[in-house]
Amino acid sequence: MPECSKRLSSVALPARASSRAAARAVSRAAAAMERDGAVVLRGLYDPRLIRRMRERVLRLHEGGALLKRGLVRDIGGRYAAVVPFEGPFLSPDFYADGRLRLLLEALLGADYRISSLEAVIARPGACGQHQHIDGPIRFDRRVGGRVRRYRGDLSRLPPYAVTLCVPLCDLDELNGSTEIWAGSHKSALRARPPGARSVGRDFPAARTDGEFGQAYLFDFRVFHGGRPNLSREPRPLLMFVFTRAWYRDPNLLDVRSGALISPVNWRRLPEKHRALFLLSPAARRELWASRRVSAGG
Ligand SMILES: O=C(O)CCC(=O)C(=O)O
Ligand SMILES: [Fe+2]
Description:
Jelly Rolls; eight-stranded mixed sheet; four-stranded mixed sheet; 7 helices; 14 strands; 23% helix; binds 2-oxoglutaric acid; binds fe (ii) ion
């Protein structure tokens, strides 16, 4: 494991999105995302809101429903499960905070979407996660029975997906934060992606330890991995993924959607926020639905 030699930039967000100070903080955060592929955000959410989200996630975890109904992956004592937009997660302060919207628009364009909301629970004893990126884009083809890899360099592309991590507890040495190799997002889409050893050599590893209330945002292309949970408590972390409107997260290809909202709650969403949820099944139009159509009409 490489030495942890770097701290990520940490940006304090002022209370009001419409202030000059907010615009400056957002542009500092966007610059850190460009340079490091990750940034720590302070003051994004009211700790009371995070506490309500923590209670809900832990209740779903302890009762078993999170694992049973929402499971997306479960590896080495760490599982990720979809969390529906209900209760505290339905608060616009959570999904459409004005400062967050400004930052996401600066990274992903004005028509970005919510791709998924997951909780990642690292159980006591969970292993360290292998170093990975969350969603590569590849343009392989098969020609004459042989796979042809795309040889071009895509490393200068702007971001197409980002994850906002909201720890639902303090993160420390013992319970395991997310380790992020700062700056490595620029290398992930090279014609030849780097291996773990060269990522460890070329980019400093930064941890995201911090007190309850901080959040961190990272580019899908940055190399990262969850650290082991050596404590006696589960470590709950929200991973809230936003994407450009056209991008589909390969981690979700075998589940119906990672952005779940009931039809009733969808109809109750403020009109101005509905487009954020267009990837959820409740928002999608049915065409030729559930009716057998005979050729004769
Ligand atoms: O558990 C963590 O800290 C990170 C999890 C993660 O990167 C993932 O599940 O893709
Ligand atoms: Fe990941």
